[in-house]
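User:
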Amino acid sequence: MKKLSPVLLILFLCALGCNMSSIKSLIPGASGGKGTATGGSDPKADVVEAARKFIALPFFTANMEGMGQTEIKSQVQFSAPDSFHIKYMGGTGAGMEMVYIGKNGYLKSGDKWTKMEQIGSIPNLRDSFTEEGLKSLSDVKYEGEDTLDGKSMSVYSYKNVTPVGAYPFTCKIWVNSSTGAPAKIHAEYTNGMLKYMDIKYDTETPVKIEAPTS
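Assistant: Predicted structure:
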């Protein structure tokens, strides 16, 4: 297979689009509570700080479940500076895997890996966490404290638009209170391919991505 299937490419971009735009607006609050950086007194500052912390991560694993035209269930692993491993576990492309290392792409169908050609530029999850990407944030609120997997979380809600297609969405995010890194996101879309997306992040387990050998 020399080119990435348009359907899988769209699914891949939507997944990353949700992932990026969801996180890029990472945090912040209105009043009361602990907050992550400013105690909720400066929502914009909290968002920028959380985005910077995400950009600085050397690796992470994102487990995604959502609904678009079909069920979306996938896992995206990232290893700096530009390596991705995507597994499709439900919906379109279920059972397939893709690995991207720089501009080299590999697709697994069944038990066979095939090198892909003409894949173009692969979106970098960090690209949307810039100050420019943060400008479209609105209605950012600090929602209080919660616990996730036994860890203290600061919870925020906000509105934003996707970096691809400018589709509006509302989002709630759980941010690890001790590290400032995102732990969970729930995003709902009013139009476009996606209806909703839940993303849970593992930012502690090391990720190693290598080119497939078979």
